[in-house]
Design a protein that fits this description.
Elements lengths: L2 E4 L2 H10 L7 H13 L6 E4 L5 H13 L5
Parallel strand pairs: 1-2
Helix pairs in contact: 1-2
């Protein structure tokens, strides 16, 4: 199963800064490529994390796994 955690480029960059990555870091440089590559993934369970906390994401994944798996 594939779980795809989705967010906008701006949100990804903000989160990278919050965790201490520099704007010229490898992670920043990979953002566009990753966002494009994610569009190619089929049959993934997509979670829009734009307004979610880490705890919210954890709970969503846990609930999904406990009620019968990914679809």
């Amino acid at each position: 199963h594939i779980i795809l955690l989705e967010a906008t480029k701006e949100t990804i960059h903000r989160r990278l800064l919050e965790r201490g990555d520099a704007p010229q870091s490898w992670a920043f440089d990979q953002t566009d490529k990753c966002l494009e590559d994610f569009k190619l993934i089929k049959n993934a369970w997509v979670i829009d994390t734009e307004t979610m906390t880490i705890e919210d994401i954890y709970k969503r994944i846990k609930e999904k796994l406990m009620i019968g798996g990914l679809s």
